[in-house]
Known about the structure:
By secondary structure, the protein is mainly alpha-helical. The protein has helices spanning about 40-45, 65-70, 80-95, 105-115, 120-130, 135-160, 175-180, 180-200, 210-220, 225-235, 245-270, 275-300, 305-310, 315, 325, 330-345, 350-365; strands at about 5, 10, 170, 170-175. The model is unreliable at about 1-15 and about 15-70 (pLDDT under 50).
Amino acid sequence: MASVYLGSWVQSYSIFNQASRSKSFLFPSSFPFNPLMNLSSSTLKAHGFTSVPSVSAVFTKGDTVKDEEQHPQNPSFDFKSYMIQKATTINQALDSAVPIRDPVKIYEAMRYSLLAGGKRVRPVLCLAACELVGGQESKALPAACAVEMIHTMSLIHDDLPCMDNDDLRRGKPTNHKVFGEDIAVLAGDALLAYAFENVAVSTVGVSHGRIVRAVGELAKSIGAEGLVAGQVVDICSEGLTDVGLDRLEFIHVHKTAALLEAAVVLGAILGGGCDEDVEKLRKFARYIGLLFQVVDDILDVTKSSKELGKTAGKDLVADKLTYPKLIGIEKSREFAEKLRSDSLELLQGFDPEKAAPLVALANYIAYRQN
């Protein structure tokens, strides 16, 4: 893969020149169900939940991008309708995958965060990649749900007092504020375990070899070679003054991009993609994964907590390493645009109609407002 460019000058990054991670990972309708319906009434009332969230509500006016920008390769593609349809499918599957059982408390905690809303970008990427290589949505749906379970786990744990110590997530009190730190930790642990069970047990119509390969990809993306590695380096970098872009990229490629990459790669594998297509989509996902975090860094210092649905400016308060901190907001925006355009180049050669969702998702990630 070509080196990543920062704005108008060239900055070479070793992570983007490494071999594929399969060898060494260096780096407008409402929901058809109530995602909080099985929480006890006392829990709901205590935390102000009085209505069912709407899928379309996650796409605000600020998120809307002009058609010519959002879908340059397929102006007829209706991105909002696509996301609503996919999010509805995913939310139904998540609701079915994690029903209320005994002990009730842990399932309430798991569902509280898992079904709290969100755009479902990661699982939608998984389904879109599956369909791009010719697979049926159903083959990748358990994996898509698994990715969202793991993402939710990471959010629950990120918000804990020992980590980011956050009180707000998706506009609601964080898990530990509702259920306590002990139950929040266990809810995250349970979701992590459920994720792998869901892929292994619920995937149908796919060869055992591809399922095992997908499980391996997912495990590597979140362990000490993936998400955990990024978290550790991020924690160890707080307050340091002698750090540069190489370390920042390492953090973001592992902490954020790794799971986004896994989502796309799992979809491609389970959809029956050839090795060449899987690796091309891996590179695409690595770019948009880094893009996602660069945009997050920018939004953290340019948007309010109300606009973000989470605490704004917390990276600044914690003296965390971010792109705006190292190169400024404007250069960070230039870098984001470079990542977006490079990611789209990797979709050349695929069927434009089937690639339209991934094109639109890359643009959405780049231009989102929360």
